[in-house]
Every structure is written in C-alpha cells, then in structure tokens.
Amino acid sequence: MIVSVEIYHAVPSRTILKSVNGRFAAGELSCIMGPSGAGKSSLLNSLSGYNYKGVSGTLKLNNQIRDEKLFRKLSCYIMQEDKIQPMLTLNEVMMFAAELKLSNGTLTKEKQMIVTEIQNVLGLSESKNTRTEFLSGGQKKRLSIALELINNPPIIFLDEPTSGLDNVSSTYCLQLLRGLAHQGRTIVCTIHQPSASMFQLFDHVYVLSQGYCVYQGSTDQLVPFLSTVGLHCPLTYNPADYIIEATDGEEQENIDKLASAMANGKQSLCKTRDINNCYLTEDTTKVSELLLPELNGNVVTSKLLPLPPINYIAGDEVDNDEDDDVVKPGNTWCVDFPTSGWSQFCTLWKRMILQLYRNKIGLNIQFYHHLICGLAVGIVFYDKANDGTQFFNHMKFCMGNILFHTFTQSMVQVLAFPSEVKLLKQEYFNRWYSLRPYFLALQLSRVPSIIFFSSIYTALVYFMSGLPYELLRFSMFNIICLLVCFVSEGMGLLVGSVFNVT
C-alpha cells in the first residue's frame, strides 16, 4: 500500500505545513523527523485523520483518493503517551481489546490464541499477569502496539514511539516496528533526533523544517544528497544530527536549498528496489516469518497473522450510499465496528466494573468519606428533625444533604474523567467502539457503588436526625438522594469532558 500526500496546514496565527508532498510505501518503516516545531506531529495528525482543522490537500492510497471512513478502519494511530487501564493485567487488557476489535463470530479460544501469539512476538508473555501500572516504559509501549495489532491493521501511525525510553528499549522498539513493516505494512512514525544506530533501522526518512520537506528518501542516500547541495556531513557525524542542525531555524538558506532540491517532497531518493510495486494485494498478505532480536541477544522466530486482503485499495469500488452497517460480499471492511453495540456495551461494562472494584484506595476513600460526613451531619442535626415547627432546621438539613451529594458525586467525575477522556479519544478514533455503548456502560458501572455509598450516608443522617422510623419515608428520602447523585454525576461528566482541571 502506498500513501501519497500533498498537505497544507494553517492555523489562525501561522502556517505549519506549507504544501508538502510525500510518499510512504508498504514494506518500509518510515519516519518523520526534524527540529522542534518543524510540523512533525501536525503532519502525522493530518495523515492519520486525527486533526483536520485548518488542513487542506489530498491524500491518496495506491493513487486513489482516500475514503476517510474506510481509511480509519484500515489504519491505527498510536499516540506518544501510552494510555492503558492501570488496574488490569496485561493479558486482561489485551483480551478486552480482542473482544472489542475482533468480530462476534471469532471464538474466545481463537481470540486468546491471537493474543498469546502477539504477546510472544512482542516479548510480553512473561508479563502477561502483571498489572499495567507496574510495567516498564518499554513494555507499555510494546503493549500499546500489541493492542492495535490484534485486528492486524495494514497502516500504523506512531507519534514519538521512543519517547521516554532508554537506548536499548528504543532500539528494540524500532526493530520490532521494522519487522512488522517488512511483512507488508505501512508504518509511519515521528522521531525527534535518533541515534546513528537507530537511524539506520529506518527504510524511509521524511525530514521537515519550518513546514517544508527538506529530504525524502532512504537513509543511505541522505549523505550523498547533502553533498550535492554543498553540505558535507563529517564521517564521524550522525547524519540525523547533521541534517537537523543544518536545517535549524537560523539556517534559512540551507532550508531553501534543500526544499528546492526535493521540490518540497515531490522528489524521493529511494533504494534500488522498486517501490512502485508495493501495492497491498492478496499476494503480499501471506504469513511471513518475523525475526526479532530479544533484549538478551537471542533471536526468536515467530509468526503473525496475515494481513487481510483489502480489495478496495486494489481498485474495487465502494458504494458510499449504502448503510455502513451492511456487510457487502467480498468487503469485510465496510462495517463501522467489528462488534455489535450490545457486545461493545457488555465488554466495556465488564472492563469498567473490574477497573472500579480493583481500585481499593479509591473505594476506601469513598467509604470513609461517606461514613465520616454522615456522622458529622447526623451529630449537627441530632434529633432536630422530629419537630415539625423547626422549619429552618428542616430546610438546612435538606439543603445540606443535597449539597453533599451534589459535590461528592460531581467532583469525582470532574477530577477523574479528563484522564479517561484521553483513553476514550484514542480508542474511539481507532474504531474500538462507538460512543453510545461507552457512555451507557460508564453510567451503569457506577450505579452499584453510588447506591452502596449513598445508602451508608442517608441511613446515618436519617436515623440520627430523628426522622420517623417509617419504611415509606425512609425509602423516599433515599430515592431522592440517589436521584441527586445520578444528576450530579452527569454534571460532573459534563464539566470533566469540557474542562481539564487536573
């Protein structure tokens, strides 16, 4: 699969990408590099479709204009920050991902086999029963890649995959991506300034500076190309460091010369092999052996699942007027999501319940918060609610209970939901699930804990305040408090999704 691009990206204050052109072929590990502020992340966001604001231009797959909805099903975007559920084990996270990303017709045993295979290939099998919060930075990055490999996308975008990793982990991560790319995938990542050894792992390099493409081609052609424009890289110098220093913001003359020589990305200095034949067809989707060097120096031979045939890219037409939920014969990529809404809801609800009730610290804080506040309010209004003539005491008692439930439930979501939104954005963008099952599961997963903790508080304040010991009145009081809790939680979700207060 060949991705061709011509993009112009502008924001109200300045132009970030200036009509750059480029090409990323299947079977190659490609990197976008350049100085800080060169437009690397902006280009990657435009390529993946993560951010269209202020972007104009064309993006083609195998010389065909990209269908945005189909492209999102064929690709995945792994962001710089590893967003993973912290309370789940590595194997549980991958199994939940398999439940969401693989079709309902796939048996659980088959899903586990796929998960196990990916764990073995990525060197994660020894940590499969470890909670993700205790994984190292390199393991978290490999887990992020593993989660997206479950449905075997042919196009993978990564933003700074080596960020925060040591040299050994960074090298291993790039070797892994290189092996995956050589199976026929199109893998594009951004990287700031790789070492000389890591730089040689890339098959294709796309260098940006001040929004212009100053080089596009293979790593071994970079130094000869620089020599043709009068820039001579010393033999002992890292070519990646040299071109970044040569195209720094203060070197405008070098930027102009390089961008002109590259025709702003229209020219490409490739290896001798013909990349015009890198189209992804059924011939390139056979299972190939993947050789990956382990961290201890041993070489492990493993196999990944074959890439699915993508008839649309090879030239088949797709009728966009048809319902997206209808599966056409011979084209299994026309479904928005691989699983039904009910299946998504059940999987997300189980994941949220498991995550919620493994958070022992959070549960203990809520328990003692409701217990202590209930005792405090009960002591303040002790035996004052049994006198109907004390109107103001009754009003203060009712308002105090309403305010307690309002702030307690809303603040939990205001503080917790912004971090959840980051995970939601990534998983929804990569087409794991739709929003309706997610929010339904989010609301219902909180119901048991809200009922339990609210009942502790209401029982304490009701009986300590001296209200009549009548089941009907106690039930009405409890139900009203619960309704306030549910409304307040919705308010907290609204505020937490709009404003990041953490």
From TrEMBL:
Q: Which UniProt keywords apply?
A: ATP-binding, Membrane, Nucleotide-binding, Transmembrane, Transmembrane helix, Transport
Check the record and name the InterPro entries matching this protein: AAA+_ATPase, ABC2_TM, ABC_transporter-like_ATP-bd, ABC_transporter-like_CS, ABCG_dom, ABCG_transporters, P-loop_NTPase
Q: Which SUPFAM superfamilies match?
A: P-loop containing nucleoside triphosphate hydrolases
Q: Where is the ABC transporter domain?
A: 2-235
Task: Output a single Gene Ontology CC term carried by this record.
Answer: plasma membrane
Looking at the record's lineage, which domain of life comes first? Eukaryota
Where in or outside the cell? Membrane
Q: Where are the transmembrane segments?
A: 367-385, 397-418, 438-464, 476-499
Topology relative to the lipid bilayer, per the entry, is:
Multi-pass membrane protein
For molecular function, the Gene Ontology terms on record are: ABC-type transporter activity; ATP binding; ATP hydrolysis activity
Family from the record: Belongs to the ABC transporter superfamily. ABCG family. Eye pigment precursor importer (TC 3.A.1.204) subfamily.
Q: What is this protein called?
A: ATP-binding cassette sub-family G member 4-like
Say which species the protein is native to: Aphis craccivora (Cowpea aphid)
